[in-house]
Every structure is written in C-alpha cells, then in structure tokens.
C-alpha cells in the first residue's frame, strides 16, 4: 500500500511495509549514508545489522539536540564520508530525527536525495509528510527551518511495538487533532470519542489510522504547501503547545503539549461565544484530558514565560497573539487578535479547571 504526496519541490511516495526487508533495499541505494536514532538502533539492531557501521551516524534524538551545534556534527560526518550530491541520505527515527536530518538534507550541497523511515506514532501519523524541517534556536522551538520533502518514506508499524507510553500518547494527541479537524459538520463528538478510545486500545488497524490521518492532513496541505493560508489551521493546539513544551524544558512531549494546547484553544473559543460550553466541556473532559498521561506541574504554567514564548511564535500576526481556535460548528479559524488578558484567562482555566491546578 502506498500514498503519493504532491509537492511543489517534488512528489513523493509513502510506502507501507509489512516487514523489515525494505532495509536491505535502502542499503542498495546509491552511496547510502545512514543517520539512526540510537535508541531505535539498540532496539532493532538485528533488523538494521546490514547497515555498514562505517556509513552509520547514531543520533541522540532529544529535543535539546535540535541545535546548529548538533547539525554541525552531522555535516562533519557527511564530509568525512565524502558525501556527494548524488549520495542517498537515509534517516531512521522519530520527529526529532526527521527535523534534524531533513534540515541537513535540504542544506548540504543545497539538497541531498533523502529517504525517511519514521519510527514513532507521531512521526508516522503526522510529521513525516508536509515537507517541514525545524531547528530550535536559543529558547525558541522550531524557529529555524526549511521546506524539503523526502524522496520517499517507508512506514512499518512494527516499530510501534516498542514505543514508550509517552511517545504513544504524543501520537494520540496529533491523532485527536486530525479527528476534530476532519471536515464533516455538524460534529458528532460521541463518535469521535468512541473512535479515539478504540485507537488508544489498539482496536483499529494502525496502518488504517495512519493513512486516514495523512489524508486529513493532505486535504489541508493541498494548494498551501508553504503554510500561508489554509494549512495554517493545522496548528490547532500548537500555538500554546509549543510554548508549553519550551517552558517545561521538554518535560511535556510535543503531541501531549498539543493536546493541552487544544484545551486552551477551546477555552478561548468558548470565552468568545464561538462554541458552546457543552461542546467545549465534552471535548476537553471526555476526549482530550483523559489522554494526557502525566502529572502537570504548576511551574510549567508560568504566565509570563508562556506569554513571552507565544509572542515570539512565527505564526504571530501584528501586536496581538495568533491562535488557531474552533469557530462555529467547530470549523477552525485563525484568531489574530488574542489579547494578553484573554491568554492569561484561558491559561488559568486550562490548568485550574482541567488539570487540577
């Protein structure tokens, strides 16, 4: 099974694999050079044992390493292996691995042939398509980046068998976002809840879930690959979520921060009278909050720190905060006029009402 993603840079295929035999095909690519998340390599060394050790860079895939200092190490490795523009750059790991290697692939010789193998639920279900690469700068998440799609993506759901709980729920956060953004109106929140519960309990075929999420994301990306219009709506939950990730020192993983960010966005929308309290409470209490499997800390909800982070967000327009919120019928809209006071009220309600602050 495969799906083709259209891109202004190059179209690319996402191939769903039932075994690890495709790893052998990757080794036969022209002048292959591999970057692999070291945790993935430790877990799947048998499946990856055919990769020549001298062509392998093991990457400590933590958010703190999404920096130019670490990128330099990857550049240096490529240079040490006499990489050419015709070389094939292959990365295996989750979203952090994708961000770093995608940036490297887009900038080394102004563009390498890049193949990506996502190994986390979040990377498979969301970030692997869309062409975005990202680097953190100073205290700002994803401030630098490029648009550069892989030449090909391989997905094998067996990588998910060893996924840690927080990484699984990080993928659930983005999955919930897509389910809430699927364009059928009016929204049937009971059905969405039932579907999410089945996904959490692994009662749905993982490939079918991943493919459905991709198609929803694709419907927002088509015609707006570079994120100037409709695609921007996919940042539902991300405006507050990115700030929360940073303020927590990445104690809160990306997809879980997005989950909390959706609660915040719903509070803003309810406060404006765009969605009913009944709908807001149902989505927050029944769908979102139960899928945050960690204790939140009051120090991560420091209004001044979060506000400063959101004011530096690249999606901001003008002097006010920009937040994607549900409008009428739960259709996403971009609110470019969120005030500091409105932010603080929404933040306090998010923490105090829904997370036991």
Structural account:
Helices cover 44% and strands 17% of the residues. Strand 5, helix 5 (95-107) and strand 6 (113-118) form a beta-alpha-beta unit. It is an alpha/beta fold. The model has no long low-confidence stretch (mean pLDDT 95). The chain has 2 domains: 2-161, Rossmann fold, CATH 3.40.50.1970; 170-354, Up-down Bundle (Dehydroquinate synthase-like, alpha domain). The strands form 3 sheets. It has a 7-stranded mixed β-sheet with strand order 1-2-9-6-5-3-4. A two-stranded antiparallel ribbon has the order 7-8. Strands 10-11 form a two-stranded antiparallel sheet. It contains 14 helices and 11 strands.
Features:
357 residues; alpha/beta; Rossmann fold; seven-stranded mixed sheet; two-stranded antiparallel ribbon; 14 helices; 11 strands; 17% strand
Please write out the topology.
Elements: E1 2-5, E2 12-16, H1 22-27, E3 32-37, H2 38-43, H3 45-48, E4 56-59, H4 68-80, E5 88-93, H5 95-107, E6 113-118, H6 121-127, E7 132-137, E8 140-147, E9 152-155, H7 165-181, H8 189-200, H9 206-221, H10 238-247, H11 254-271, H12 277-288, H13 303-311, E10 321-326, E11 332-338, H14 340-354
Parallel strand pairs: 2-9, 3-4, 3-5, 5-6, 6-9
Antiparallel strand pairs: 1-2, 7-8, 10-11
């Amino acid at each position: 099974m495969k799906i083709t993603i259209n891109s202004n840079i190059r179209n690319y295929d996402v191939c769903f694999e039932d075994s690890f035999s495709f790893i052998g095909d990757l080794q036969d690519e022209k002048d292959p050079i591999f970057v692999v998340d070291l945790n993935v390599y430790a877990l799947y060394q048998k499946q990856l044992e055919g990769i020549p050790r001298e062509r392998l860079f093991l990457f400590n895939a933590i958010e703190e390493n999404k920096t130019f200092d670490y990128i330099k190490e990857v550049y240096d490795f490529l240079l040490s292996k006499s990489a050419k523009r015709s070389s094939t750059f292959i990365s295996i790991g989750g979203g952090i691995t994708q961000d770093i290697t995608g940036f490297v692939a887009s900038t080394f010789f102004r563009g390498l042939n890049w193949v990506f193998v996502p190994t986390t639920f979040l990377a498979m279900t969301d970030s692997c398509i869309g062409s975005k690469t990202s680097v953190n700068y100073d205290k700002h998440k994803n401030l630098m980046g490029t648009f550069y799609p892989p030449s090909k993506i391989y997905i094998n759901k067996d990588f998910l068998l060893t996924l840690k709980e927080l990484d699984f729920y990080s993928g659930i956060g983005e999955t919930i976002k897509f389910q809430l953004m699927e364009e059928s109106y009016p929204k049937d929140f009971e059905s969405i809840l039932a579907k999410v519960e089945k996904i959490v309990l692994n009662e749905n075929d993982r490939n079918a879930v991943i493919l459905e999420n991709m198609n929803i994301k694709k419907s927002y990306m088509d015609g707006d690959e570079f994120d100037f219009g409709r695609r921007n709506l996919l940042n539902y939950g991300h405006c507050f979520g990115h700030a929360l990730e940073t303020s927590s020192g990445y104690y809160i993983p990306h997809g879980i921060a997005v989950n909390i960010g959706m609660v915040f966005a719903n509070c803003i929308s309810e406060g404006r009278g765009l969605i009913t309290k009944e709908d807001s409470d149902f989505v927050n209490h029944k769908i979102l909050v139960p899928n945050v499997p960690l204790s939140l800390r009051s120090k991560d909800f420091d209004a001044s720190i979060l506000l400063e982070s959101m004011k530096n967000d690249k999606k901001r327009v003008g002097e006010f905060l920009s937040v994607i919120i549900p409008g009428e019928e739960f259709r996403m809209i971009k609110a470019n006029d969120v005030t500091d006071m409105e932010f603080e009220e929404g933040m306090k309600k998010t923490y105090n009402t829904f997370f036991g602050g």
